[in-house]
Amino acid sequence: MPLRPFYFRYSHMAQPEERFLSAQESDPIKMGWMQGFPPPEDKRLDFADGSFFKFPQLRWSVAHMREFMPTISVSRDPTGFDPLPYRLDDDIDAVSFRPRNSDQSMTWEASLWKNYTDGILVLHRGAIVYERYFGALTPNQQHAAMSMTKSLNGTLGAVLIAEGQLDETKFVADYIPELNDSAFADATVRQVLNMTTALQFSEDYADPNAEIWQFSAAGNPLPKSKNYTGAIGYFAYLKTVKKQGNHGEAFGYKTVNAEVVGWLIARITGRSVAQYLSERVWQKIGMEQDGYYSVDELGTPFAGGGFNAGLRDMARFGELIRNQGQWKGNQILPRRAIEDIEKGGSKTAFSKSGHPELPGWSYRNLWWHTENAHRAFTARGVHGQTIYIDPKAETVIVRFASHPIATNSANDPYSLPAYEAVAEYLLSLS
Amino acid sequence: MPLRPFYFRYSHMAQPEERFLSAQESDPIKMGWMQGFPPPEDKRLDFADGSFFKFPQLRWSVAHMREFMPTISVSRDPTGFDPLPYRLDDDIDAVSFRPRNSDQSMTWEASLWKNYTDGILVLHRGAIVYERYFGALTPNQQHAAMSMTKSLNGTLGAVLIAEGQLDETKFVADYIPELNDSAFADATVRQVLNMTTALQFSEDYADPNAEIWQFSAAGNPLPKSKNYTGAIGYFAYLKTVKKQGNHGEAFGYKTVNAEVVGWLIARITGRSVAQYLSERVWQKIGMEQDGYYSVDELGTPFAGGGFNAGLRDMARFGELIRNQGQWKGNQILPRRAIEDIEKGGSKTAFSKSGHPELPGWSYRNLWWHTENAHRAFTARGVHGQTIYIDPKAETVIVRFASHPIATNSANDPYSLPAYEAVAEYLLSLS
What we know:
The structure is a homodimer. The first copy, chain A, is an alpha+beta fold. Helix content of chain A is about 30%, strand content about 15%. Chain A has a seven-stranded antiparallel sheet with strand order 5-4-17-16-15-14-13, sandwiched between helices. Chain A has a four-stranded antiparallel sheet with strand order 1-9-10-6.
């Protein structure tokens, strides 16, 4: 059996010009994935061959990741629960906006279908004003956060810096000597958190020699085949990453930086990112459900993309950040850490990154910054995962989605203006 | 890579005369299993080769099953939680009893160590009078229930019968035509629920040709090797089970009966045992944590042994049964179903089963019946898992454990008399 690359990479290969089934046509419940006892042959989804994460199958899988792979829980406080207040606003559905590069306006409600939304929740001043579930997601299930995982770990990294446990000016290898012969040896903690490292690491999924495939193979939790000679586990893979250029000059979105942040968190706290996220956040703000991480063969959580959580719990996390680490009057995370996230990164470094679709944006502490008039910033994950925090509008929008195209450039034209329009609408109510 | 049999079988091969590390010596945290980032080579536990479930490694793994394999959640109500009242009684530690075949008395507290207890909780009249955690278990983790899983599914089976959805006098194949060519074709639903089927199915782990190995291979969630020709998945395996003798004459403890019950539940309700347990129980009685099931390659929960749950939640389940399906005044499960469980099975059929260490016991609805003066009955799983319900003493005892020897005959001498002694003590307080 050949070693298959790790799951979430497959759908990157989809071409934008392909004609995909619509959100309605690809409804995973109607399509019957994994339904029946046992499910019929043509409705079975397989992890080992990656078919479970092809479109439209992935529409089912994003809400059932645990059923395909080993995972580690991010435990909530089993005896605590803070309900989020409701102040539902039916007028939001009709809020309209102009999609990018379009002459025709679109309603918020229409954008949810256009973007293959699985779950959407809008908090305004801490109250739920909008909440809907689609596809395979229900309120008591978790959904893949994909690369939003990075922002959770960037937050923990900023917390450790604010508390003086981690020095952002030190080299990574000062904390992790195992990385002495890698590209991370002379990268600072800050450079890793801002992804301004210079790495020979291609995430070009069309290139079979791209490093992303070796990374994926190392992190695949299935037993390796006998002739496999690569790294086993995320940490081991990081040792092999080579430098290409000078650190600190340009933003380059490379998942391995987030794995390094995960390793730093583990080395400093003595806890995996799953355990530490539980201790610092998941047990502290009345979460409804445990979150969970996928793990590699050695039980290491996938810090760059393996997190899963409930929709309302992701909204709680977003609200904690919007409130600069406060929850119900208690300072859960240090204010300075969140302020450091809020201030955004270098627009110059970002502009060198080849993201023309995100003009004027920046990146810092593994968060994306729109740098718009509201200073909105976001956690983003492939296939449309979003936490959108608008400080001025006192709004947090969380979306889980299963867009057929992995890259968010496919859904941003119908997402970012929609978020801005709802934020403006909520601001206008104040 | 050879296909490895499924996990929980390994430790069955341990011989009673072996000298094992004591509970204190084998403390999984002190032994450092899977600790470190990454864990050092000699502290890693592996699923594929089964080493994660050898003693003493299994002491860590029983509280971390999800980190090794794909699972499906048994969701609680994320917005509901019923705290269990506390009325702790420090005198319980000193309650003493005479272990079977022993002249020396032992205290309750000493028995916990002797039995490699991971978690123990005693409810008296619905209040927690005793609760302790050992080893790798904490209050916000789940522990493997092993074959206690059967009793949960036997309960759901009894519920379906009481509600008229399942006819205990019908043949299994009346509901599941796929089993027409198997031993289950002419077995009644009642015979399967009481394990009085006559099956050619050996659970002799010392025999490499025993059918249990084929069953285990079929249920192993890892991809099969190319030369594998056996069944894929639990349901497919059941079709291959052959009859040996006459149904209805003797009790024979064979896990495949519980898988048939799982299939019946799924076929009738349109829900897997994980989903149905969530709907009927886990969402109804204020559980603190989701439970979860391990699954086969097709996502089918392992109805005979794959359940995991928190200690307090298993106690809630036990209390629900003790109260004949009532929870806080509401009838959650039909009283008739629980009465059918309480009445026990045929002692004659049981006496033919080769369980001389359990004299006078019976088995019904996948529950074990002591048939003692208090009419105590129990769910039991290998390595010491127990729900012990004593109706007369209004007591429920739940124990998670990781005894080095799989069969409960190794710990029963220090367990059953201890339960009886604590029940008598609590009864004496009334």
